[in-house]
Amino acid sequence: MVRLIPGTITGFTEADRAYVVWGIVVKDVIYVRGDYVSGPTAGTKLLRYIVPAGRRAYILALLADGTASASFTLSWVSNGAPLVYKLRLPGSGVVSYVFTGALNPDTPADSGTEIAVTINESMPLDVYKIDMRIGLV
Q1: Do 70 and 128 contact (CB within 8 A), yes or no?
Q2: Phi, psi at residue 13, to the nearest 5°?
Q3: Residues 34-88: pLDDT tens digits?
Q4: Exposed / middle / buried, residue 125 (Cβ in 10 Å: 0-12, 13-18, 19+)
Q5: What gap in Å lies between CA 32 and CA 11, rounded to an integer?
Q6: Rounded Cα gap, residues 116 and 49, in angstroms
Q7: What is the pTM of this model?
């Protein structure tokens, strides 16, 4: 994350307290931390975040931690349309998904909607955790 220098991008001042994150000017970068979930069933939401009123959200990075391989669905709503992105944890351990830009540069999550990560299959003997970095505008 690079702090915006007044005058370097037309139309923004120090008072805007904006940041440039992978080419997107955002007001806040937040970290959403999930809990460890033991034995999740298919469709269990491992992480959910409600976009604050009056804001839109870009998905900047995800961290998946688990004891076995699994697939996940990241879902959000942009311009009223539901969108999904499929993720895979290839084996036990931690995988960091850091996107070269935001995952959704043209489709930020709408104000008041949910961004969620759901596990796609039942994993009765395993433990998973998802963390996410979000840029708010």
Answers
A1: yes
A2: -125, 170
A3: 999 999 999 999 999 999 999 999 998 899 999 999 999 999 999 999 999 999 9
A4: exposed
A5: 30
A6: 6
A7: 0.81
